[in-house]
From TrEMBL:
Residues 338-773 form the TonB-dependent receptor-like beta-barrel domain. It comes from Lutibacter litoralis. InterPro entries: Beta-barrel_TonB, Beta-barrel_TonB_sf, CarboxyPept-like_regulatory, Plug_dom, Plug_dom_sf, TonB-dep_rcpt-like. It is found in: Cell outer membrane. It is a multi-pass membrane protein. Residues 1-18 form the signal peptide. This is TonB-dependent receptor. Its main location: membrane.
Length: 820
């Protein structure tokens, strides 16, 4: 009986203690705008929290009196609170400190009143899903976003499209430094494995957005800020395993702020066999940062990089092989089998299905190493004027290795006297490049006026060359002799002036004027031994105007008009027979925002009118790169809807949907027509067949994209998420042909997170991600090409080949993170 009484006393005591927990929440601002990333620590303890992108925070505490130390690393502010019930605080930091950490990226970012469509993502929001997959996959739930993976499992080569625009049209900056490749304009996330572990927050602006550094934003801009300095010393290790032999291991360390100095570092390793056969990835990366922070000045040096060795899967899987269509496979062999070895034919016939990979050579890999050096200086000249100066140097070198059967000496050394000799080769195509960048911004912010003068200068110098490392030619070929070489040199200067002015208490006017000047030179030989002679200069003026009207604390509307111009990429200039024109985009945006403490709704209408847009022809070159051509008139029009509702502290739902129409006014689709003598089999003619399409759909631009997440918190340490994504039908080229399309797909994932706080460690978290829980068989990317090969005078139809990139069926990742 005594034991029972004692037990009841303990239980009631525990309940009493539980009832003493109150919610302390609030919002931190600079007097006008919310401040994200602000550290709030309970004085005398290590317990604390950081504000989200809206400047909001929440923490559970027992009844009592506390002193909150509110700081963004510069001068802190102490706030005293007597907690006897759930309490909400409004904390104004305008008189206390300057958040220099935000100066680093504020010049190129939008705030809550900027009249553009954007979404912010915090590190916390992607933390539970950061189990080894590349950054684009972690952004899959954002509005108008479609992602894909060559290997099918999200590790290795991954891609992202926004509003139907591919990665070459999505401007990416890291701490304000341009990241897109200067020549291709693409972004290769495989070169930065596990970079998400060193990211503090991300902003995705859709459409033209605000002026930024680097390549022109025609679909979106992705602004990434690396981790903020920690107040306290820390050590974090994360380890994950999953389907297809996927493994992730990393270790992060930080000194915390010590006499105004701090240091941080991360080391990561990721490997995966891939869903597709022979699509393995072996990825390593690191991140280091050393900084000095005072009340008015922040100086930080950052070095990060990585090396990827990825087996190639970019050939794709023929449609007939995906569908295990024996007749279709034989037809494919009849058309394309002449270029296959016996091993490749055996592979095709014996391993049909979704995981088929054309490449059988075990070292058919992409091997590339890239290192970034960044130096950032932020300084507060006074309470109203802030300056940021940043420098960057990036070095990259690597190759992709290929086995090529049925080659001739003349394919590599056309002047060789034995040019007709045949054999097999293993070749490497190299890229050795250097990128230098300088960016700056000067920000004046006082009362109703916010002015930013910014810009930058960058230079790219890249060598492209190829070598044979093995051959079976019956004659001697000099080992590792370059068989082609070309150089590309690109310089860019841009400057912009952004002004936000509050016309009255409810209306904000926005003007953003940018000038870009680009020079690109390239000479030498292409990989096909064709001469290159490019010397182009472009000068662009990109104005942007907008208004935001705030009805009250809950409702606001905005509208903007922007013009953007962009230059063709390297392939456009070196592979097109007709020199392509630069592109222009006129972007109209109209939006509405509604937000309460538990509800938000946004609607954004857009009309993107293109002049001379470069679009896919459906043809690719021998390394999978698309060939494009200008079309005079085209447009994208749509509506983006977002909504979220918090039913309780335990249950919330978030959803987004994009409905769009993406059209080319008039398009000439060209198919090559090869004719031969049916008796001698000698070629007799080589022509082009042109077909005009009007009001045709733009490729890879689904009319419907939707996403949703249901989050359930059964307790404060457990989070369960059900994640859904729908992507409508996509055409593989610009002919609106149902034959050359990818079916719509609806995929669902499950995410679970458990956090524990044992005495021997600050926190232990266990995260589970089950992708494609209903085992949907779908493809998210592909390509197609058509050609005629027919007897002279024949009316045989064109031959069309279709290739898909199948995505993994049900798979999982599970990881643990220890925070010390």
């Amino acid at each position: 009986m005594k034991n029972l009484v004692a037990f009841l006393i303990i239980v009631f005591s525990m309940n009493a203690n539980a009832q003493e927990l109150f919610k302390l929440s609030g919002k931190v601002t600079d007097g006008t705008n919310p401040l994200p990333g602000v550290s709030i620590v309970i004085k005398g303890t290590s317990k604390g929290v950081s504000t989200n992108f809206d400047g909001e925070f929440s923490i559970q505490l027992k009844k009592g009196t506390y002193i909150l130390v509110v700081s963004a690393i510069s001068q802190p502010k102490e706030v005293k609170v007597n907690l006897v019930k759930d309490t909400f605080l409004s904390i104004d930091m305008a008189d206390s400190f300057v958040n220099l950490e935000e100066v680093l990226v504020s010049a190129t970012r939008a705030n809550e009143k900027t009249p553009v469509a954007f979404t912010n993502i915090t590190k916390k929001e992607i933390e539970s899903k950061n189990l080894g997959q590349d950054l684009p996959i972690l952004l899959d739930q954002l509005p108008s976003v479609v992602t894909t993976s060559d290997s099918g499992a999200g590790v290795g080569y991954t891609g992202i499209r926004v509003r139907g625009s591919d990665a070459s049209r999505v401007n990416v900056t890291i701490n304000g430094i341009p990241y897109n490749d200067s020549e291709s304009h693409g972004t290769y996330w495989v070169n930065m494995p596990d970079f998400s572990s060193s990211v503090e927050d991300i902003q995705l602006q859709r459409g033209v957005g605000t002026s930024t550094n680097g390549s022109g934003a025609f679909g979106a801009s992705l602004n990434i800020k690396t981790q903020s300095a920690s107040q306290e010393a820390y050590a974090v290790t994360s380890n994950a395993i999953g389907s297809y032999g996927t493994r992730k291991h990393n270790l992060s360390l930080g000194t915390g702020l010590r006499n105004n100095f701090y240091a941080a570092a991360r080391l990561s390793s990721i490997s995966s066999d891939g869903y597709i056969d022979r699509s393995a990835s072996d990825l390593t990366s690191y991140y280091t940062e050393l900084g000095y922070i005072s009340e008015k000045t922040t100086l930080k040096g950052i070095v990060f990089g990585g090396q990827e060795i990825t087996q190639q899967a970019w050939y794709g899987t023929p449609k007939a092989v995906v569908e295990k269509d024996a007749e279709g496979i034989q037809t494919f062999i009849d058309h394309e089998g002449y270029s296959f070895t016996e091993d490749q034919l055996e592979n095709l016939l014996s391993n049909p299905g979704r995981t088929y990979n054309h490449y059988t050579y075990k070292n058919e890999v992409d091997n590339y190493k890239q290192t970034h050096y960044q130096l950032h200086l932020e300084h507060s000249l006074n309470n109203y004027l802030f300056v940021n100066i940043s420098g960057n140097y990036t070095s990259g070198k690597g190759y992709f290795e290929q086995f090529k059967p049925f080659e001739e000496v003349g394919d590599y050394f056309p002047n060789n006297v034995n040019a007709d000799e045949e054999g097999e080769v293993i070749r490497r195509r190299w890229l050795d490049n250097d990128f230098y960048a300088f960016v700056y911004s000067l920000n004046y912010k006082k009362d109703k006026l916010n002015v930013i003068l910014g810009g930058g200068y960058n230079k790219y110098d890249g060598d492209h060359f190829g070598e044979l490392i093995w051959d079976s030619f019956p004659i001697a070929i000099p080992s590792e002799e370059q068989y082609y070489f070309s150089n590309g040199e690109k310089t860019e200067f841009n400057t912009y002036l952004k002004t936000e002015y509050e016309l009255n208490s409810k209306t904000l006017a926005f003007i953003d004027l940018q000038y870009r000047s680009i020079s690109y030179k390239s000479d030498g030989l292409t990989s096909d031994l064709l001469p290159i002679d490019v010397n182009k200069e472009y000068n662009f003026f990109n104005p942007k105007f907008g208004l935001t009207y705030t009805f009250n604390n809950l409702n606001s509307i905005y509208g903007s008009f922007s013009i953007a111009n962009r230059e063709p990429n390297r392939d456009d200039l070196t592979k097109n027979l007709i020199s392509p024109k630069s592109e222009q985009l006129q972007d109209f945006e109209l939006g509405y925002k509604f937000k309460t403490s538990n509800t938000y709704v946004t609607a954004n209408l857009y009309y993107m009118n293109y002049k001379d847009q470069l679009v896919l022809t459906g043809e690719i070159d021998d390394v999978g790169d698309p060939i494009r051509q200008n079309v005079a008139k085209s447009y994208r029009a749509g509506i983006e809807l977002q909504a979220g509702y918090k039913f309780s502290q335990k249950l919330r739902i978030d959803a987004n949907v994009t409905l769009s129409e993406n059209k080319i006014k008039e398009f000439d689709y060209i198919v090559y027509d090869s004719q031969y003598d049916p008796v001698t089999w000698e070629d007799t003619a080589y022509n082009q067949v042109s077909t005009t399409f009007k009001d045709t759909d733009i490729s890879f631009s689904p009319a419907l994209i939707a996403g949703g997440t249901i989050t359930y918190l059964p307790s404060k340490n457990v989070s369960l998420g059900f994640i859904s994504k729908y992507v409508g039908k996509q055409y593989l080229d610009n002919t609106s042909s149902n034959l050359k399309s990818m079916a719509a797909y609806f995929v669902n994932n499950f995410n679970a997170s458990l956090k524990l706080n044992p005495t021997w460690v600050k926190e232990v978290s266990i995260n589970l991600l089950v992708n494609n829980i209903f085992n949907k068989r779908y493809v998210s990317n592909g390509y197609t090409y058509s050609y005629y090969y027919r007897p002279t005078g024949s009316t045989d139809p064109a031959i069309t080949e279709i290739f898909y990139y199948p995505q993994a069926t049900r798979n999982f990742l599970i990881g643990t993170t220890f925070k010390f």
